[in-house]
Amino acid sequence: MMSRPPRAVTVLMAAAAFCAATASTAAAAHAAQDAGRRPLRIVNEWVRAWNGTDPRALGALFTADGTYIDEAVGVTFHGRKEIAGWKARADGLIDGVHVSVRATRRDGDRVTVEAVYSGHIKGAPAPFAVPMTTSLDLDENRCRIVSDRDHYSLATVLAQSGLPADWTPPAA
């Protein structure tokens, strides 16, 4: 004859099973939520390219017909070669160009990056470090940048650098 476990044991076993299932579901939901917050590989590569010294590394992250827009300076570049040229120009004008990511948000194929953009304009009395927001539109595989739109305050860059508001860089 089989004996049944006391009711308390049955309740405890059911509660343990319920807790295990709930914890598993919560962990999966948390992991999915973190995956949405975690920067994509392309964002990490974008940061490495800006912080690096090879302008072609930045251009290579874009689609062949990609677009880069610097809203503060009011310039637009098309294609990998022009985008790499912009990075080379920035490196020639600014010592220690650096981007430090503070947060990222992804909505479909768009990633918004909140960062600090810093460096020292050659010949300026002081370095700068300003907040920047970048919108990266990615291709359908999220492995190349279709467009990059940078927003930061040029007036703040110049003020922090100790340069007049009407300063312009020397001709290339």
From TrEMBL:
Positions of the SnoaL-like domain: 43-140
| Record's signal peptide | 1-31
Presence of the UniProt keyword Signal in the record? yes
Tell me the keywords, alphabetical order.
Answer: Signal
> Which InterPro entries does the entry mention?
NTF2-like_dom_sf (IPR032710), SnoaL-like (IPR037401)
NADP listed as a keyword = no
The protein depicted here goes by the name Nuclear transport factor 2 family protein
